[in-house]
Please model this.
Amino acid sequence: MKKILTLSTLFAAAISFGAETVWYSNNTSSAAIEGAYWGDSANWNNPVEEGVGPTNTTDINAAVNLYNNIYIDTEVNINAVFFKPSTTAPDGATLVVKDGGTLNATGFTHDNAGADAGVLIESGGSVNLTQNASLPVNFSFAGGTLSGNNIDVAGTSRPGNFVFGAEDESGNFRAAVAHSFAVVNKIKIYSLADPRTTFRFNLDTPNLLIGGSASNLKDNAFIYSGNEIEIAANFSSLIDFSRIDFSALSGEYFVSFMAMERNYHEDKTIDFSYLDDFNGGVETAIEYGQEYNYGDNVSFVVSYDNANKIYSMVMNVAAIPEPSTYAALFGAIALAFVASRRRK
Model:
């Protein structure tokens, strides 16, 4: 998902007045929009088509048409969010849920918006899906969370794409947290046409676990279902190690990608691959149980624990000697060479 470079055309702050939520933009005064209601729908910043900024709605079941970048930083109740095409956001608008922001919604719809249309959830922000929902848009987790009861990752026309670990609106990279994407009952992952649903894991040092027990891996999985995950079509997952600082690491570490209490369809597969930054950034396919190298001192194995229903990775990092250690080693070799010459 793209980074929002500026909100000069719109900044939004949601302020609660009883059951109402009023949206302010910097090009419309509060007096001008106060009382400007939409009956059963609202437009969030649609200056091109409507000539007004975000308006408020008295109906918490309203549908919202999203045309341009907007952020929320308080609790908001709304029905579906429709991502719409816009000349001011031709690649698709981004809805940013900031620290302190909670979006309670029934779902999201990609209504012919650009390919990058989607939601960025920053640290301290959360999206709660109040009904069984489909997610045919992009979601980026910059420390925030997405939760619900039953969630379909993709719709019938386009896939849902998810990025775990992302830049926030200010351009700062934030690691994804445990249970970034968590449901009470069921996640259904399916894609009826190419492109396939994708999950990208931009790993950071805080994502590494010391212990690899089943309980630890489930407690720290990026994606977690309290009941089942139904895999109805193959989808791809990309692992990116480039954010990890290996300089201070040594030993065995674990990463938990996905965990569930039961898997509904085991005949489908997750195709894992990784970015090989030491080979020109080539994307390399991964076979389960096969050991791979990342640079000279890191090896890893991705596996699926059928008994516990966990997709995870174990990573071994060999300590890199400090320059002083290298100097001592070379000094010892030189002394041994001198001693050998003297004995001769």
Summary: The chain has three helices and 28 strands. The first strand starts at residue 13 and ends at 17. The chain has a mean pLDDT of 76.
